[in-house]
């Protein structure tokens, strides 16, 4: 069973690892002003009705819900947020050649904005920066759709007139199998999986921890709250993510 470790101990555990995969959740982006949805003070925890806006069947059937969602998107902090020290620390590991990939549950694009090679960011829940047509699949940058909101309350696809939606995974929607396969591959090839700011309660993403452990990788968890994988982890860090990740990166890279 893992006990809470300190950064130096965890850094020593990772010092020889050339292949690290980082799994990130909402906790890495709260420091950038993006609210957490599932945490104790999260949007869905404190206002369960808000979750109905993100159900795919409701969205398809109800034009009023779509109008409401577009208005929410228009002011979404995720579109304008800036990466924080934790995102930058992950980028630093990547530039040092130590990362297989970042698998993220976040839709905010902040790893890419922090300079990560987009080819090594696997967005399992999609991205808020693109809009997709639910009929023909046309993808459009989100700002191009949002600028139509002054004239149209539910902007339709310019190619086929279909209903459009943020290219994010809603409740009731399956994850893209190709993206999930890439995430599994990134975890299978790593020597250590570092799970950062994720409650590890949302499947199938949480099960990536099982994949890592079966493949013989070390599992490190950096999260303020307990997770179902704490007992299986090789080490836990509870400190604030924005402080701990830069320190962890320094300790890992100092071992080179
Ligand atoms: Zn279309």
TrEMBL record:
Zn(2+) binds at residues 133, 136, 157, 160. One of its GO terms (molecular function) is metal ion binding. PROSITE patterns: SIRTUIN. InterPro entries: DHS-like_NAD/FAD-binding_dom (IPR029035), NAD-dep_sirtuin_deacylases (IPR050134), Sirtuin (IPR003000), Sirtuin_cat_small_dom_sf (IPR026591), Ssirtuin_cat_dom (IPR026590). SUPFAM superfamilies: DHS-like NAD/FAD-binding domain. The active site is at residue 125. Residues 1-255 form the Deacetylase sirtuin-type domain. It is an enzyme of class 2 (transferase). Its EC number is 2.3.1.286. Keywords: Metal-binding, NAD, Transferase, Zinc. It comes from the Bacteria. This is protein acetyllysine N-acetyltransferase. It comes from Nocardiopsis ansamitocini. The gene is cobB2.
């Amino acid at each position: 069973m893992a006990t809470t470790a300190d950064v130096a101990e965890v850094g020593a555990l990772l010092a020889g690892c050339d292949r690290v995969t980082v799994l990130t959740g909402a906790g890495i982006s709260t420091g950038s002003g993006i609210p957490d949805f599932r945490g104790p003070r999260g949007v869905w925890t404190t206002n369960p009705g808000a979750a109905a806006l993100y159900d795919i069947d409701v969205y398809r059937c109800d034009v009023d819900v779509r109008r409401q969602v577009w208005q929410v998107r228009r002011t979404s902090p995720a579109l304008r947020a800036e990466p924080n020290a934790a995102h930058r620390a992950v980028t630093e590991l990547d530039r040092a050649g130590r990362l297989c990939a970042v698998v993220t549950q976040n839709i905010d694009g902040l790893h890419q904005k922090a300079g990560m090679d987009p080819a090594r960011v696997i967005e399992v829940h999609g991205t808020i920066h693109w809009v997709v047509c639910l009929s023909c699949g046309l993808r459009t940058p989100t700002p191009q759709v949002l600028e139509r909101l002054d004239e149209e309350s539910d902007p339709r696809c310019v190619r086929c007139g279909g209903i459009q939606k943020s290219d994010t995974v809603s409740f009731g929607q399956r994850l893209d199998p190709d993206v999930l396969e890439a995430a599994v591959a990134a975890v299978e090839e790593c020597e250590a999986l570092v799970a950062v700011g994720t409650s590890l309660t949302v499947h199938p993403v949480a099960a990536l921890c099982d994949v890592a452990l079966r493949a013989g990788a070390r599992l490190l968890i950096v999260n303020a709250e307990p997770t179902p994988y704490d007992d299986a982890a090789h080490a836990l860090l509870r400190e604030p993510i924005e402080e701990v990740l830069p320190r962890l990166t320094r300790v890992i890279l100092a071992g080179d």
